[in-house]
Amino acid sequence: MSDKDKMGIDRREFLLNGAALAGATALGMLPSGLALAQSARVRVGLMLPYTGTYAQLGVAITNGLKLAIQENGNKLGGREVEYFTVDDESDPAKAPENANKLVQRDKVDVLVGTVHSGVAMGMVKVARESGTLLIIPNAGADAATGPLCAPNIFRTSFTNWQPSYPMGKVLADRGMKNVVTMAWKYGAGEEAINGFKEGFTKAGGKIVKELWLPFPNVEFQPLLTEIASLKPDAVFVFFAGGGAAKLIKDWQAAGLKGKIPLFGSGFLTDGVLDAVGDAAEGMETTLHYADSLDIPKDKSFRLAYAKTFKLQPDVYAVQGYDAGQLLVLGAKAVNGDFGKKNEIIAAMEKAVIDSPRGKWTMSKAHNPVQDIYLRKVVGKENRYVSVAHKALADPARGCKMG
Ligand code: BEZ
């Protein structure tokens, strides 16, 4: 299969189409509707979960994105902004239809979404077929910036591999040898566990058992009973949102807290601390954000977010904010002319995002190259402990771009 067949559209074709469009604009050959569109509002399509276990994540991403655009005078490249919103319900089966509602019906200039990796795969398909600019503000599906990478697809969050891989070495360095893993059985869970496993086994550790639950099932009890009888050195998990909060509480109720250490990628404890009382106290996780970073941009972001939304931000809010910052920067490069897609892409590829998480750059596959922090829950904070891996880039296996 050629690159083009695999990607639907290759970089050369993408650039040629853009050049033809730019040439036609210069010659005044385009229908007046397109010229009109330049003065109309920029159409931003938000496809995120607003119901279900990931609802809070979708809201935080929306807030973060809108805050970044608000800080730019509520404009993109000098043009007013209109939002089109779809609740994707974290349902992969509905993803292509939902994405097409925004692309075909609402004719959005840019698609922003989503949280769930399976849903993101549907959005990637639509973006590759339609050429619509897609910014992924959470979903870590490795393939989006791996074998399915494309010029018009960017991510401002992470790959599922990225925050889990460094925890392998952290645990091995502590002399932990036998670890049980537990996760939701879907793309994100599988890839997060693979990332951890790669780091842990490379450092000499052994996975004694992999435990799985279908998404978004939260019947943890039988698995916790099995863990208690296996008595591993530690357990590493991937859960997020409402499911993560439930696991943390069930872990304490089952009497495992203080007996078997529970680790995870930071989605386990981000955005859930208000809901779990003291059950998460002392838990350590790895992630590309922490609550007590000594970074001026983080301080100003947290103040602005709290003032605007009367809520404390979390990693999802940061990722949404950075999606907004990336969009602001891309639109500025073309004075709001979203027809100049290749120039937007070129600007986004060169971006150095001044993020609350610390400055990050875009990899050739269009995924953040970023520090991964070790954090520890202290009270209501995921407190910074150390840098677990400096400037970590996803290996982007299978991406033929760049
Ligand atoms: C995912 O499905 O990619 C995902 C969902 C929540 C947190 C992190 C990753």
Please outline the helices and strands.
Elements: H1 3-7, H2 11-26, H3 32-39, E1 42-48, H4 55-70, E2 75-76, E3 79-87, H5 95-105, E4 110-112, H6 117-130, E5 133-136, E6 153-155, H7 161-173, E7 178-184, H8 187-202, E8 206-213, H9 221-230, E9 234-238, H10 241-253, E10 262-265, E11 284-287, H11 296-309, H12 315-333, H13 341-349, E12 352-353, E13 360-362, E14 368-378, E15 381-392
Parallel strand pairs: 1-3, 1-4, 4-5, 5-6, 7-8, 7-9, 9-10, 10-11
Antiparallel strand pairs: 2-3, 11-14, 12-13, 13-14, 14-15
Helix pairs in contact: 4-12, 5-6, 7-8, 12-13
The structure holds benzoic acid.
Residues 115-117, 138-141, 160, 188, 240, 267 line the site of benzoic acid.
What would you note in describing this structure?
- The chain has 402 residues and is of the alpha/beta class.
- The chain folds into 2 domains: 233 residues, Response regulator (Rossmann fold, 3-Layer(aba) Sandwich), CATH 3.40.50; 127 residues, Rossmann fold.
- 41% of the residues lie in helices and 21% in strands.
- It contains 13 helices and 15 strands.
- The strands form 2 sheets. Strands 7, 8, 9, 10, 11, 12, 13, 14 and 15 form a 9-stranded mixed β-sheet that branches. A 6-stranded mixed β-sheet has the order 2-3-1-4-5-6, sandwiched between helices.
- A hairpin with a 5-residue loop joins strand 13 and strand 14.
- Helix 7 runs parallel beside helix 8.
- The longest helix has 19 residues.
- 51% of the residues are buried.
- The N terminus is likely disordered.
